[in-house]
Each structure stands twice: as C-alpha cells, then as structure tokens.
C-alpha cells in the first residue's frame, strides 16, 4: 500500500503526497489546484526570515490563505537560529500547520546569505534552529535537506542526527549535493539509508516526474511519503496521475479540452488573486505544462505570451480550437 495517512508531531495528514514550496509557483491559487487533485499538504512559497524581519508586509503576502487551503506548510530560510526565530515569532499566530526549515536551496543569492544549503556545513546551527523553534511553538517543526555540500562532504546522516536530537518531527531529503544543483541524478539510496535509521517520517524528493517515478521511489526507498516539486511545472496534473496509479487504477491523460478548462480556472484564480494584468503575466510560466504535446501549440503559446487580459486569453484559445478542428 503506497498511499497512507501520516502523522507529523500533532498533525495528522490523510495521505503522504506533499507539494513542495516552489518559489514563484506555489502561490495560493496553484496550491488549491493541487489540493483538488488530492495532495495531502501544500507549502507556501519559501519565505525569507530577513524578508519578514525587514519588509514584513511584502513577505507576509506569501502566507495569504483561504479556510480550505489546509493543511498548509510554511518554509523559512535564514542564516541562523536567532534570525529565524525572530521571523517566526512575527507569523506565529498566522494560519498554518507546520514550519519547515530550508537547508537545501542552492540558488546563488540564498547561498550568499548563508542560508539554504549553506546550513549543510553547519549541523550545529541546524540543531539550534530546530531546538529554539520547538521551544516556541506547539506546531510540528520539520526540515528539508540535501545529501551534503559536495561529494566530498556527504553528511545527511549527521544533519539528521542533529535535527532529531533537537526534536524535529519530519525530514525531507533531496538526495543531491548542493554542488550538483539539479544536474546529474538524485541518489535515492540516501533516502533508503535515512529511512532505515529514522524514528521520524522520511519524505523523499528529487526526480519524480511521472507516476512511475513516484512508485519506484516508494519501492526502492520505503520512504513514508513523497514531495513533488519540479515535476509539477511540466505536468500540472501530476498529483492526480500519481494518486490514480498508486491506487492501482488506470489513468487517462486529460484531453486538450479538459486541460484548457483547468488552465482557464487556474488562471482566473490567479487573476482574481493578484489582479488581471499582473495575473496574466504571472501565469505565462504555466502555459507550457498545460499545452505540451498538442499540434501546432507553439503558435498558441507565442500568442498567449503577449496577451494582457483574461478576455484575450479566452479569445486566443477559442481561435486555436477552431484552427485545430479545421486542420487536424
């Protein structure tokens, strides 16, 4: 049985399919899309501790939520325990269900701020961060890590030991090093090793692009759950596909009409959330995932990347559907 409930500290989840905090992607309307497909928990975009400390009103917008946007995870990144605690206390009473610490982001500006994957070189600081948060909240405290800084310093078990001693309730492992960025192949063997030693839930992450990948990760690592990330960008229906296959069902890919209907609903949600022109521009990054593989879709994408209103979006799609019916 692949899909099963999972308990994280005091938080009980209905299943074990997690949506990662993706900067620029897991905004409120997008989280709601994944929830309708069956995701157990979704995370807001990762939030800078320094952003909350110095420009609170701007950074806290990432925590916008609805009553049905739950359970909700919040992931913070910062350089040290005191700065992260200061930021956390500013949002402590907001609506969310767990706090996660990012110890794996390899983006240059995050590394330069001694945050994200930089903490992989400081297991003692990770201990302090988890420990001080546990002293200041009853919510579950979790962390997301990589295997190590580089191939000469694979230390995910050392980091795990520090986090466990500090009271962490769950750990997510993306088994690449910081130096690999997203190149090469995730070493799922590290997830297996971690799971064998762990007394808290272990969530596997990395290279899950298909339902087959999800099933294979469960089979090879015995992880307690999986966290979807980059795979969602190219396939907005990945959650429902994975759940269907793991339940032993046949999954039929949505046809173009179904994809367009979901696209329009998703886009309308973003437009209603942040405004029409800004929402349309922001939504451009999602078009490719919805339209991938359909005939002559390049010309439609080019047009969609120029529009500035929802009405123009609808018109462009109607025009494409007419073209497709007349030519294919």
Strand content: 15-25%
From the alpha carbons, calculate the radius of gyration and give it in angstroms: 20 Å
CATH class of the largest domain: Alpha Beta
The share of residues in helices is 40-55%
* Helix-strand topology string: EEEHEEHHEHEHHEHEHEHEHHHHHH
Shape, please? globular
CATH topology of the largest domain: TIM Barrel
Structural class: alpha/beta
Look at the structure and name the CATH superfamily of the largest domain: Aldolase class I
Overall mean confidence score, pLDDT: 96
Can you walk through the features of this model?
It is a single chain. The chain is an alpha/beta fold. The chain folds into two domains: 6-246, Aldolase class I (TIM Barrel), CATH 3.20.20.70; 256-327, Orthogonal Bundle (Non-ribosomal Peptide Synthetase Peptidyl Carrier Protein, Chain A), CATH 1.10.1200. It has 15 helices and eleven strands. The protein has helices at 28-36, 49-54, 56-59, 81-91, 108-112, 123-134, 156-166, 188-197, 211-221, 231-234, 238-246, 256-274, 276-291, 297-304, 310-327; strands at 6-8, 11-13, 17-19, 41-43, 47-48, 72-77, 98-103, 141-148, 170-177, 202-205, 225-228. The strands form two sheets. Strands 3-4-6-7-8-9-10-11 form an eight-stranded parallel barrel, surrounded by five helices. It has a two-stranded antiparallel ribbon with strand order 1-2. The chain is globular and about 65 Å long.
